[in-house]
Specification:
Shape: globular
Order of helices and strands: HHHHEEHEEHHHEHEHE
Number of helices: 10
Low-confidence stretches: none
Largest sheet: 3 strands, mixed
Distance between the termini: 30 Å
Strand order of the largest sheet: 2-1-6
Mean pLDDT: 90
Radius of gyration: 16 Å
Strand content: 15-25%
Number of strands: 7
Length: 197
């Protein structure tokens, strides 16, 4: 898959206004439906963007914050498989503001299968959708902005496969064969062994 460039991520971070002073209290009260038991995939080129914005060398950034998995011969970066998101601060705020992974930034906007393609929709499990003060942006500008990203269907298919399941991070950590501060690359089959059924 072709990598997105720095400007793609930078422009989207500056223009997408879903993460506001109104969202944090709702997320804090919710307890993080989207935080736990999910595999979060990064878009091609996103690890490079995030590392640069965080002021870290790419490999050091990957070791601290990411893992990966091999899919059809290429490595896809994912947020480190740990019980708590590695970007979650002690006050439960996000330590990646300004370079937050796009799939985290846009949530509760999600992709849903539709015939032979994908449609952009909302995850109605998220409290941000049920409250007027936080819902309006996502249902109006947000969905349109995500549609305009033109994310390849091949990548959405990978991310969607993970979204179908919850994952047991405790099992993954217990079975981890490299230290947690090392970038681990899983095979697709290996990572799917840890899905909760």
């Amino acid at each position: 898959m072709q990598k997105f460039d720095f400007d793609f991520f930078e422009n989207f971070q500056k223009t997408f206004k879903g993460d506001t002073e109104n969202t944090f209290p709702v997320c804090l009260e919710c307890g993080g439906i989207c935080e736990y038991k999910k595999i979060s995939s990064l878009l091609p080129g996103e690890a490079e963007f995030m590392a640069m914005k965080h002021g870290m060398e790419l490999q050091a950034f990957r070791d601290k914050y990411l893992d990966g998995f091999i899919y059809e011969g290429q490595v896809i970066d994912i947020i480190k498989c740990s019980v708590r998101c590695p970007f979650l601060e002690t006050d439960n705020s996000c330590g990646a503001r300004g370079f937050k992974p796009i799939m985290c930034l846009i949530y509760p906007i999600i992709f849903e299968k539709e015939n032979d393609g994908w449609k952009v929709t909302l995850d109605d499990r998220c409290p941000l959708i049920r409250l007027e003060k936080t819902r309006s942006f996502f249902t109006t500008e947000g969905i349109k902005m995500v549609e305009d990203l033109h994310i390849p269907g091949e990548w959405i298919n990978i991310d969607y496969t993970f979204d179908l399941y919850d994952f047991d991070y405790n099992m993954m950590i217990a079975a981890r064969d490299v230290p947690v501060d090392t970038y681990k690359i899983y095979t697709y089959d290996e990572i799917m062994k840890y899905r909760e059924v």
